[in-house]
Specification:
Length: 584
């Protein structure tokens, strides 16, 4: 009987309330779906009816070809069909417009993190910027009837596209790739009219980046001057991060204009009043981003024109913000270390430069800053009488850039004055370009002192004439003066016999009988205690405290919005708030 035929899987029929005939039919279908050789020739006719469709036929509407070769060709062509070719111009425009939503959220939530995310995207956009792309974005963002139409005209004039009309709609390809918009045309016109200042300042920064990369420094300086005046007239806390970037590029443009910075007539001197005004306003408004950026730019300007006293006065009369970005802190420490090195305060310079190298970003984008700070740090260590570690010169990213300084360290370590002078003569251009040439010239006395120390350890008695020959000095009188100064400074333990013309070294006693081991041990203990105190301070804060602060800040913003709304509607007066409410 057909109801008693065994199942293909060898199990008994399950009592599920379905008739046995249906179960038998299902087993027949399963058996027919399996291999072609398990059934007889009679069941081969049912194979054409119950064969399931292949995966390729499920995904495509057309039936598969009857031969197997056709199925293989469809599997090969499948990835090619899924590839979507995107126009690079359309992609750049979409990427630029995607930052507008971040700026809107930054204004709505009073959160600068969204603005920083928009600024971080500039590094990926700057290589793809062209005047046509910028003009198209400006034309699609601003409308002719909007209040910001004059600003858009200034942007178009800066890139040489003043003939482009405003209010142009995006193409169909861009509408597919970009975010969905409201279908109503009136809504789009309203959005075009209400362009927040953060968006046009962001577009202005992109124009600055394009002008700087295309080396249009004169036009960029003029546009940056107009932009700085516009920023100064706006009093919006959401513009702080963008304004700092504007002043940064303004200073870079002026550095590239003739006459170059060493000249007192350089344009970089002319923009100092603008930067000082921006710093004063930022201090009054408590704008941390602008304060940090402008202080660093002013220090850079003073150092480029060798106005060290003015830079020192700026550092002493201003306070660098503690909550500044890590990049600005690293730059400030580098310039401060450079000032202290020029002022012969090598210990403070060493501390600042060490902190700057540690705070330098580890990415390849900041490799130039790390190399520059390391070069100055090496020279300061040599001026302090220390020899840098060899591992510093073995770093793959630093090896080639630090090769001239490696030769310099070798000459100073041995005390060979001839090799020292040869190294300076061969790499003088490199040292001048790095800004360390004047500091390296101070190392000549250190090389001579090192040579005298080596000779005092090698010889118990040596004539001044031999010292003059070995150190390549001009006369015996200069050798006598240098030896006497080294004895007075405590560099060597020796006596000078002027009548007989020789230097006699004292017997070297036990080093552990002196105070040197105790001082070195004291320095190590002090460093360990400082590290312990910092670790204890870091452990005082409870876990996830920052999340609670973010939550409280969000609640405070919501309360401020509610109170501002009530004040506008007339339900609440400012006097009812007790003076604790600050204007938004």
């Amino acid at each position: 009987m057909p109801g008693k035929t065994p199942h293909s899987n060898g199990n008994e029929p399950v009592e599920n309330g379905v008739r046995k005939n249906q179960d038998v039919d299902m087993t027949d279908e399963k058996s027919s779906l399996k291999g072609k050789g398990k059934k007889g020739v009679k069941e081969g006719e049912d194979m054409t009816v119950v064969v399931p469709p292949s995966k390729t036929t499920k995904q495509s509407s057309q039936p598969p070809p009857p031969d197997a070769d056709g199925d293989v060709e469809m599997d090969v062509d499948k990835p090619e069909d899924l590839e979507v070719k995107v126009d690079p111009v359309t992609q750049v425009i979409t990427d630029i417009k995607s930052n507008f939503a971040l700026l809107d959220r930054a204004v709505a939530l009073f959160d600068a993190r969204f603005t920083l995310r928009a600024l971080r995207s500039i590094s990926s956009l700057r290589k793809r910027l062209t005047p046509d792309i910028l003009a198209q974005v400006i034309a699609e963002t601003f409308s002719v009837s909007s209040t910001s139409a004059s600003v858009a005209k200034q942007l178009l004039v800066a890139i040489g596209k003043e003939d482009v009309p405003l209010g142009r709609q995006a193409s169909s390809e861009m509408e597919i790739d970009s975010e969905p918009k409201a279908p109503a045309k009136n809504g789009n016109k309203k959005e075009n009219k209400e362009v927040i200042p953060e968006i046009d300042i962001f577009l202005s920064i992109l124009v600055q980046v394009y002008l700087f990369d295309s080396k249009q420094f004169q036009q960029g300086a003029e546009f940056s001057k107009y932009l700085s005046e516009r920023i100064h007239s706006l009093n919006r806390r959401t513009l702080d991060s963008l304004s700092a970037k504007v002043y940064f590029y303004y200073s870079l443009f002026c550095e590239q204009l003739a006459p170059l910075p060493p000249s007192p007539q350089s344009p970089i001197v002319a923009i100092r009043p603008t930067l000082l005004t921006a710093l004063r306003t930022a201090v009054l408004r408590k704008d941390i981003d602008i304060q940090a950026s402008v202080i660093v730019l002013l220090l850079r300007s003073y150092l480029l024109t060798s106005h060290i006293s003015q830079a020192d006065l700026l550092v002493s009369h201003t306070q660098f913000p503690e909550n500044a970005a890590n990049n600005q802190v690293a730059r400030f420490l580098y310039y401060l270390g450079r000032i202290r090195a020029i002022q012969l305060r090598y210990t403070e310079a060493h501390e600042h430069l060490t902190a700057a190298t540690r705070k330098a970003p580890a990415s390849s984008c900041a490799l130039g800053f790390a190399q520059t700070a390391t070069k100055l740090l090496l020279v300061v260590e040599l001026l302090m009488g220390d020899i840098p570690e060899r591992a510093t010169f073995r770093v793959p990213s630093m090896e080639q850039a630090l090769h001239p300084y490696f030769l310099l360290v070798q000459a100073v370590r041995v005390g060979n004055l001839e090799d020292f002078e040869v190294t300076i003569a061969e790499h003088a251009d490199t040292f001048r370009r790095d800004g360390t040439y004047s500091l390296i010239l101070r190392l000549r006395q250190n090389v001579i002192k090192t040579g005298i120390r080596m000779m005092s350890l090698s010889y118990s008695r040596i004539s001044l004439r031999d010292i003059c020959i070995r150190l390549h000095l001009g006369s015996e009188e200069s050798a006598e003066y240098i030896v006497a100064k080294a004895i007075r400074d405590g560099v060597i333990e020796a006596t000078l016999d002027r009548e007989r013309g020789f230097m006699k070294s004292k017997e070297v006693g036990d080093v552990y009988a002196t105070r040197e081991p105790g001082e070195a041990f004291h320095d190590r203990i002090r460093a360990c205690l400082a590290l312990h105190d910092e670790s204890v301070k870091a452990m005082r804060f409870p876990m996830n405290q920052h999340r609670l602060e973010l939550k409280n800040a969000q609640e405070a913003r919501e309360r401020e919005r509610e109170m501002a709304k009530e004040i506008q509607e007339g339900d609440l007066d400012e006097d009812d708030l007790g003076g604790d409410f600050e204007g938004m």
